[in-house]
Amino acid sequence: MRMIGAASLVAVCGMLAIAPARAQWVSSFKGNDTGGIIAYSLMAQTDIRSLAIDHCASYGKVVKFLAVEPHDGGYISFACRWVPYGMAERPLRTYY
Q1: Which site in 29, 32, 39, 78 is 20 to 30 Å from 59, CA atoms measured?
Q2: Has residue 42 got a pLDDT over 80?
Q3: CA-CA distances (angstroms) from residue 86 to 7, 19, 52, 64, 94?
C-alpha cells in the first residue's frame, strides 16, 4: 500500500513540475453590452475610437470614454450608453 501512495505522489509531483506556469492573460480588447477596455498598446496600431464605436453600435448604444492610463500595461475604458434623450435616430448599426 505504501508503494502505491509513493508512486502516486511521485506522479503528481512530476505532473506539477512539467506543467507550465501560466499568468492570467487578458486580450487587448474586451467588452460587453455595458462597456469594455482596450489595451493602451493597441492605440499605436489601430483606431481605438472606431473599435469602441463599432462595439457599442452593435448593441444599439453610443460610446462614452471614461478613463485612460497612458503607460505600458495601461488601458482605455469606455461605457456603452443608450441614445441620449432628444435624439431623433438610433446610432448607426454595423453588421459584419
Answers
A1: 39
A2: yes
A3: 72, 57, 23, 17, 22
